[in-house]
User: Fold this.
Amino acid sequence: MRRNTQVIKSSGTMPVVNSWNEWDTLQEVVVGSATGACFEPTEPGNRPQVRGLGDVPFPTGPKPSEAVERANEQLDGLAALLTAQGVSVRRPAPHDFAKPLRTPAFDVENQYCAVCPRDVMITLGNEIVEAPMSRRARYFEYEPYRKLVYEYWESDPRVTWTVAPKPTMADSMYRQDFWEWPVEERHARMHESEFCVTQDEVVFDAADMSRFGRDIIVQESMTTNRAGIRWLKRTLEPKGFRVHPVHFPLDYFPSHIDCTFVPLRPGLILTNPDRPIREAERQMFTDDGWKLVDAPQPVLTNDDMPPYCQSSKWLSMNVLSISPEKLICEEQEKPLQDLLYSFGFEVLTVPFRDVFEYGGSLHCATWDIRRDGTREDYFPSVSYRSAV
Assistant:
């Protein structure tokens, strides 16, 4: 059966899929959608809680239509701003997230949403990589993007497409007593980097990765384990990439790197003052002249975040770069905007607070398909030997 696809054309000789870092000039992007979103269920890899309400059970099933409409209004606003900046914007296909899942190893009452394509999809040069994901409710979250992936793949033979092995997500894949560890035990074990997923299967979320041309850093976290990092090394390093695990030991619930360590342009990284990078890993950046700048305290405190939001106040850092000189910031984060202005950036703003309860902000809610530029080596001082 012939697949109906949209003809996609790139500018000049650039492949239709081309993105080597987080800051080159953006040409095409996917913006997420809240349509059909559900509350993420409780499962071994996730224990959502209602903020400030103690033991009140977390809701289940579809999100209220009013909440979905508010989030979609702000996602549409982001899409409109990007379009006005000359960026081609694509959106995920509709998906029934209320449908339960059942596999030989697990079942879950509903799925989640397509607000955060950054969590499951990543562009590495001319290659699209689908992450296996770490939570049961997100097992099939790639489906809203499959039609787009086929379009890109079929329109240009230079585009490659890699799907990571799907984990079983059986009970044995999780360390279920993790959620009961007291803070003292977490502190004592913080250098072990053992969280709610075990090391037995390949597990990673794409949002634990950040791209620096030839080099990719990957955070070991609750959503990415050492087996996942080994798979990334063995898959990507024969293609000329260098994969570097990174750790933020004071983050007791690490999940996704783009609220912790955010490259803004060559030589400049926005860092989280509450979650410093491990000192030995910091040296990779400082040895090649990168400046690490702490983000200001967010306008919202953790207590001010939306009741159903499972992310921290540091969503403030989740900016989206349009080019090395221009980026988008949440409109109420004035201290961060002032810092970015001081470094010479043009700062565009949009309201995005109604998206927070869906797990992310501006960077999370996008998946860049094409930026100009090529693979560069931003770390010439790195003496590298892969250990896989």
Q: What stands out?
A: The first strand starts at residue 26 and ends at 31. The chain has one domain: 26-371. The chain is about 15% helix and 20% strand. The mean pLDDT is 92.
